[in-house]
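As a warm-up, study this chain.
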Amino acid sequence: MNVNIKVTRGLALTLFVAVLLAAAVATETLGQRATSHADASGTLEIILELDHVTIAVADTGSWLPIYLTNILQDVGGFEISLLLDRPDLFRFANDTVVETTIACLNPPGCTMFDTTIDTFANVPVDTAGASASGWEFVEGRAISAFNLKLAGFADQPGGVAVPPIAAGGPRDLLIRVFMEKIASDSLLDTLTDRTANVIINGPVTSFSTPDGLTIGRLDSIACLNPPTCDSLDTVFYTDTSAFIYVDGSRTFFPAVQCLAGDANDDEKLTAADIIYLVNYVFKGGPGPICSPDSGDVNCTGTTNSADIIYLVNHVFKGGPPPQGC
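Now compare it with the structure written out below.
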């Protein structure tokens, strides 16, 4: 068994791994994790929600807020797993972190050491103004391009006491993570389905009380040798009715496609567009409706009398169509 002494951010990494393995480590009973023991199966305790947002194709990404309603018990820790169904559109923004570790080669004496290098994908998490603001440990790790693990707890051993999220409060922002756009604008323009769903992975999402008891897990007596069942053991199970998970999504709305020369935005080129541009260029009338550039039919960078002549030649004389700058 190796004993690792972390040189850089070692304590945080150790704690994060511990939280990912068990979001709420508690005292052991018959080798099982202790639980919060909801009064009865069917008691709703936690609501975790994501939102549905439409963003512009030109946007570089979107912050994803995660909302928590804890109904019955204080929350002092969490492990949340999120999945993306469209890694071709988004990813959870991350930075590769390199961490140096000094490893003990001969525990428990540790007279011999070796140096190793660990790398992992760290996902920035924003807690400003959120319920987890001020918590001593909150981190995210990109397990893959489409899987994000978030973990946090209010109090680290030996740290300053940090209050948990009190039970019975209103729906509140827990944390935020950034979803980075990876699809190009040109690709998005060709797609009819531009929605990426963000799914809460319930089986590996959990919450704990400040003293480390897992919320929503119940004990049950298990028969070890059916059908006689003269040997029994206590096992725990998740009361799925104790949680409500509301998934979210991000949808790119299509970029505005303006028809070059269609000054009045009726999706066709006629004498009405010529009259519209005459009023705009010579009489101070309003500019082209769809885009200020849609009147620049000869692609000189400005809309002037030359564009009017160009459009007259196209509409009445069969000249070349506007170039669509």
